[in-house]
Design brief:
The protein is α/β, with parallel strands linked by helices and about 300 residues long. The chain has one domain: Alpha-Beta Barrel (TIM Barrel). It contains eleven helices and ten strands. α6 runs parallel beside α7 and α7 runs parallel beside α8. It is globular. The mean pLDDT is about 95.
């Protein structure tokens, strides 16, 4: 088995879902143009990323960083072998996503009412009802649905989240046609023991659906959590180039785990991602230049090893 900067050839694969164009940008003071976001996505594809959370179909008055979602999709859709994910939080967002030609639809369902009412203007039960409605709308379209359970490890408003609560949300999601369920540490409070426990519990009710994980490094536990998830059998992880990101409706929810730092850990652990470490690090720096700030990622500063 030989190694390159995309991971050891022939090794087991971990799929990277690049969320930089959406989650990475939605909390930044600098708003990138449609052209810059299209370039970011194109460079990520060139680096080897094959699933990208490209856009969010939310109210642009609430999240101006996501203005022009349809324009972005018109430029990037149709790329062979690449899946472009659009985030939708309600029926209107879903209609926009389908009209724009997304490859996949992702819906976020918070595990807590405190976060759900502030972020999405409804209770968790009401949001789960909306997911069921959107699932029915997607029937026959050929567009797969994934659901992200946000605040699965802790809530900025309701505090600790009981694992039984997350399990019940996943159980309700399993009643739909969703093909994938993501557990998200929206505010970066989780630890590896919690990751292992929650993954084991939710696997029992997910009905064989793919489990994905989304971690933030707010308290410097994001990469340990990602490795714990991989050790539990998770083979799909979200990350953001440069380590940018955070939720504008969650106080102090900074920093997705950085794609380049995650790649380094996975590749050195004997896993393959198919994403170029060097290209990802360069792209994280590119984002930093446009956002006018130092990327939180470390790999761009320290460099790969061996050099």
């Amino acid at each position: 088995m030989t190694a390159d900067d995309r991971g050891p050839e022939g090794a087991e694969q971990v799929e990277i879902v690049e969320v930089g164009p959406r989650d990475g940008l939605q909390n930044e003071a600098t708003v990138l143009s449609v052209g810059e976001r299209v370039e970011l996505i194109g460079r990520a594809v060139a680096a080897g990323v094959r699933r990208i959370e490209a856009v969010s179909f939310v109210n642009p008055r609430r999240v101006p960083q996501m203005t022009g979602a349809e324009d972005v999709m018109s430029e990037v859709r149709g790329e062979p072998g690449v899946s472009f994910i659009g985030l939708a939080l309600n029926r209107r967002g879903l209609d926009r996503a389908l009209a724009a030609g997304v490859s996949e639809v992702n819906v976020a369902v918070p595990a807590t009412d405190g976060f759900c009412t502030r972020n999405q203007g409804c209770t968790v039960d009401e949001m789960l009802d909306s997911v069921a409605e959107m699932d029915r709308e997607l029937a026959g379209t050929g567009v797969p649905l994934s659901v992200t359970v946000s605040t699965a490890f802790g809530c900025p408003f309701d505090g600790e989240v009981a694992p039984e609560r997350v399990v019940e949300v996943v159980r309700r999601i399993a009643d739909t046609g969703a093909v994938e369920v993501a557990l998200a540490d929206t505010i970066g409070v989780g630890v590896p023991a919690q990751v292992r426990d929650l993954l084991r519990r939710t696997a029992e009710v997910a009905g064989g659906r793919t489990l994905r994980c989304h971690f933030h490094n707010t308290r410097n536990t994001g990469y340990a959590n990602a490795l714990a998830a991989v050790e539990e059998g998770v083979r799909v992880l979200d990350s953001s180039l440069g380590g940018f990101g955070g939720c504008p409706f969650a106080p102090a929810a900074t920093g997705n785990i950085a794609t380049e730092d995650l790649l380094y850990m996975l590749h050195r652990s004997g896993l393959r991602t198919g994403v170029s470490l060097a290209d990802a690090a360069a792209l994280g720096d590119w984002m930093g230049e446009r956002l006018g700030k130092q990327p939180p990622a470390y790999l761009g500063r320290a460099g790969a090893f061996p050099a």
